[in-house]
Design brief:
Helix Hairpins; Four Helix Bundle (Hemerythrin (Met), subunit A); 269 residues; mainly alpha
Amino acid sequence: MNKNIKKRTHRILEKATKNDLASKIFDIFIITLIILNIIFVIFGTVKSFNVKYFLFFKYFEILSIIIFTIEYILRIWSCTENIRFKNPFLGRLRFIITPMAVIDLISILPFYLPMFIPLDLRILRAFRLFRLFRLFKIGRYSKAMITLGNVINEKKEELIISVLAVIILLIISSSLMYYIENAIQPDKFSSIPESMWWGVATLTTVGYGDIYPITPLGKFFGAIISLLGVGLFALPAGILASGFNEEIQKRKNFRITCPYCGKYIDNIK
């Protein structure tokens, strides 16, 4: 009996299949609750709204935390129905450190921490930011978010290489500009870390204009670095575009997906 309840609970909590009405209702309910939470977090920063609806925001937050906490506990309890987390102890530990489970925990943890740990009010304000992590919970139910996650996972090596290339170029360009401009603008290019602000603004082609080279050599290298930035920052976009195209092709060829992990099971031509 307990086994059947756990299995049913797991199916309801996971992304709904076509014929599972209870699971679909649960998905819609949780997504709606998450969206409302994000809306209230945003409007809660508006002083007039916060003063007028303070109690409403507070009680809605408490109700949401209760629901999210129950959901989190039930997910840990029922996760052993997934073959990946079959072991009652180690399986649950593995589940707890999965990205979505970590997001679930982060979204509720700031509410409970002050009950056990005395925290400064300024730190508590910072913890409120973690409530925005509830937005990522939608990724469990959104095909678009799942697709994005699959693309990033498939292209992680290429993305890491492109990010490393950007970091290397940033360090080289900032160091170069520091040695060229420091003697003329010691207040703007006072150190390599300070010069990195110019490097980031230049490589991303934002160009805030608060820091810029004034020597002929500095302007020359600044122009080259700007051109390199345009090409280099286009790399991750190209990698992601390629990944999305491959994922779309997979969806055309692979029709059956696992209801637990979202991965493809079989190839049907």
